[in-house]
Structure prediction request, 153 residues.
Amino acid sequence: MSNLSAIYGTATREALTWHGQGACQRVEDGRPKHDPDLWWPTSSTEVGWILEGKRICLTQCPVLEQCRAYALDRANGEKWGTWGGTDEWERHIIWARQDGRRVHKVPMHLVEHGTTRGVNWHEGRGERPCMECLSVKRARQRERDQRKKQVAS
Prediction:
């Protein structure tokens, strides 16, 4: 059985019998065929990883529909990672639309980090900007400080 049964426990083990057949669980020569970071990226800047994981899901996974149904079932609480070819933001959008809510948030993997928009995205979420966005924020602050000095003199 997959490593998920150890994480989620016995009750979920039966519900995840299909999971071991997923493209994300394939093993060759005793090692995972694909890097787990394709489905569980560790940084918002790994856009290529996210897209590659989704591509593998959509083109190679024999249990895509079961995986997607599992991820979209709110009782399972799959808020992170790529499941059934959808990332957490796509599931958030689907759930919001099911509830009749509009979605105004920009998905993390669509944010252009190292830009003003990236800084605004981080600040809108109340989080510290990534290093790329932090350098832009600092540059903006220096520009503001220089303008204030010019106006004052």
Notes: The beta strands are 27-28, 31-32. The first helix runs from residue 3 to 8. The helical segments are 3-8, 10-15, 47-60, 64-72, 88-98, 116-124, 131-152.
